[in-house]
C-alpha cells in the first residue's frame, strides 16, 4: 500500500505484497487520518463512552466464537474495497473483553486509539497497550489482545488477506491465562 499526495488530494495505491516499509506507510497514513478526523471540531460531539470519544460508531457485538466478554466490531474498509488485499476495522473491548487466541496468514497491525489493554504472543509475557500504542504482528504468530480489567480499549486493526481469509481463530483465552498477565 502506498499513500501518495498529488494536486487532486490524497489517494491510495495497492501493492500485492506489504513489506515492513509498506506497513509503516499504512500505519502512518491511518494514524494521520485518525488524528485529522478526531481533531476536526465538527467531530468533537461523536459518541462517547467512559469519557472517551469514539471516532467511529461502536459497531456490532463481536461473536462469542472469536471473543470473550463484551466486544464490538465496526468495519471501516472491506477487502472488496481494496482488491481483496486487506481490511480495516475498529474493535472496542469493554473492561475484561478480549480476543481468542488466533493467527493471521499475512500479519496484522493494531493502532490503539483509546484506553488500556494488552497484547500477548503464546509463550511470551503480555505487553501493555495504551492510547498511541502500535503493534505489528508477524504472519502466523499465535496471539491475543484485549482490554485491561478496569478499562476499555479501542484499536484499529489492519489485517492482510490471503486466499480470502485474514484470521485463523483458535481457543478462548481462559480466565486463568488472562489473570496470569498480571496487568490491571
Labels describing this entry:
184 residues, mainly beta, eight-stranded antiparallel beta sheet, 14% helix, globular
What does this structure look like?
- The protein is mainly beta and 184 residues long.
- It has one domain (49-179): Jelly Rolls.
- The chain has two helices and 16 strands.
- The strands form five sheets. Strands 5, 7, 8, 11, 12, 13, 14 and 15 form an eight-stranded antiparallel sheet that branches. The chain has a two-stranded antiparallel ribbon with strand order 1-2. Strands 3-4 form a two-stranded antiparallel ribbon.
- The longest helix is centred in the first third of the chain and has 20 residues, at 20-39.
- It is globular and about 40 Å long.
Write the layout of secondary structure elements.
Blueprint: E1 2-6, E2 9-13, H1 20-39, E3 48-49, E4 52-53, E5 60-61, E6 67-68, E7 71-77, E8 86-93, E9 98-99, E10 102-103, E11 108-121, E12 127-130, E13 134-137, E14 143-147, E15 153-160, E16 168-169, H2 175-179
Antiparallel strand pairs: 1-2, 3-4, 5-7, 6-9, 7-8, 8-15, 10-16, 11-12, 11-13, 11-14, 11-15
Radius of gyration computed on alpha carbons: 16 Å
Name the average pLDDT: 80
Number of helices: 2
CATH topology call: Jelly Rolls
Q: Which CATH class applies here?
A: Mainly Beta
What CATH architecture do you see? Sandwich
Identify low-pLDDT runs.
1-18, 31-51
Distance between the termini: 36 Å
Q: What's a quick, concise take on this entry?
A:
This protein has one domain (49-179): Jelly Rolls. 14% of the residues lie in helices and 40% in strands.
